[in-house]
Specification:
- The structure is a homodimer.
- Chain A is of the alpha/beta class and about 230 residues long.
- Chain A has a single domain, classed as HUPs (Rossmann fold, 3-Layer(aba) Sandwich).
- Chain A is about 35% helix and about 10% strand.
- Chain A is globular.
- The first copy, chain A, starts with a strand and ends in a 13-residue tail after the last helix.
- The model of chain A has no long low-confidence stretch (mean pLDDT about 90).
- The interface between A and B is large, with 44 and 44 residues.
């Protein structure tokens, strides 16, 4: 933890746990940032805390931010059901402007900590089609960050690192296994129960299951019920 | 309030009150959004509520977001004094990534409300030199917004309106007076007391005072003490 500081967005899911391990391997002192945003799967935050501790983050903050109050997403609005299959196009689990809000907060923390590197576990291969997971979004945010901040203007540019963006879910899992990530403590499911057990059927569960199968690695996920 | 919806960032200061009046004049149903972010001048929020009500906003939300916990600014960290004169360069009253965070939240709300227009009262003439008040920042955020969101991707682009950006403070005040804005209920001061009375000496007070003087309009600001 003696390296340069970095801010790592940590949801408690499989992807962000892998990113935290990658950034740590690269020598950064990783300051993990999670959000309590009214998500229905708040087992995520329990997982995030465990992951930050296990991987050895330099710090872990949980920031409360009430974007859930806006509604408009199955992940934050109990009136909208999470479907088994998100289908074509952008699914109802999309949370308006979520990654923009999360990266903006990470940017503020990074500037305060004098960190130049931000890490986010977005992925544009085995993913739900969210617009704020694509390379063009990441590039646009980096450009914005360097116009928006004192550090950017004064010649200390920020870099938005999205090391998983072009990986398949299987490649992400293989990377994490190589780095010793314990995926049994991560929670990806959109409908996880109070103990973090996964439904096995939502988009997030399906991509995750398929990833373990494609990587030929036994799936350590704790599922609700018996034989999923 | 029967027009198209718009989201207007409302701090409770002179600039954002003027923007709310302008957007209302243009026929938008204005949804005002304020932030409780740990700012030391929380008299702002009292002023924002009054302004939203007086100008006739369609709704007014106050969103709690703990960017103040990051520190790094005289506006959110009691350990850093607010100076009388911010001096050259970016002053200590700069809050890391503040307008990026605020616009990101406004974007999420706008997408949920199906609003395409966002309004922000930034100004790059009589201002404190903050990087996130410049035209290049606004343009970069608009580009980001249309990559980040379902609405942007599906061909319903957002516009970030910054109608004050090239005005002098005097021109802003003249515009507001024409629209009937009651500036006596706005609070701009970085060190306002519990009743919203201004110090008369900080950057925000100086720009505001000079604006009324240049516009030849009696300054309705309530100042702490007697003869400021």
């Amino acid at each position: 933890m003696s390296g340069a500081p970095a801010v790592v967005l940590l949801s408690g899911g499989l992807d962000s746990a892998t990113v935290l391990a990658l950034a740590t391997e690269q020598g950064y002192a990783c300051h993990a940032l999670s959000f309590d945003y009214g998500q229905r799967h708040d087992a995520e935050l329990v997982a995030a805390k465990r992951v930050a501790s296990t991987v050895g983050a330099a710090s872990h903050r949980v920031m409360r931010i009430d974007i859930g109050a806006f509604g408009g997403s199955a992940l934050t609005d109990a009136a909208i059901a999470v479907p088994d299959d998100g289908g074509d196009g952008i699914p109802v689990t999309y949370v308006p402007a979520r990654n923009t809000v999360f990266l903006s907060c990470a940017l503020g923390l990074a500037e305060t900590l004098k960190a130049r590197e931000l890490f986010i576990g977005v992925n544009a291969v085995d993913y739900s089609g969210y617009p704020d997971c694509r390379p063009a979004f990441i590039a646009a945010f980096e450009a914005l960050a360097n116009l928006a901040t004192r550090a950017g203007v004064e010649g200390h540019p920020f870099h938005i690192n999205a090391p998983l963006i072009a990986m398949t879910k299987a490649q992400i899992i293989e990377t994490g296994m190589r780095l010793g990530v314990d995926y049994s403590i991560t929670t990806s499911c959109y409908r996880a129960d109070g103990e973090g057990r996964a439904c096995g059927h939502c988009d997030a569960c399906r991509f995750r299951k398929q990833g373990f199968a494609a990587a030929g690695i036994a799936d350590p996920t704790r599922y609700v019920g018996a034989n999923l």
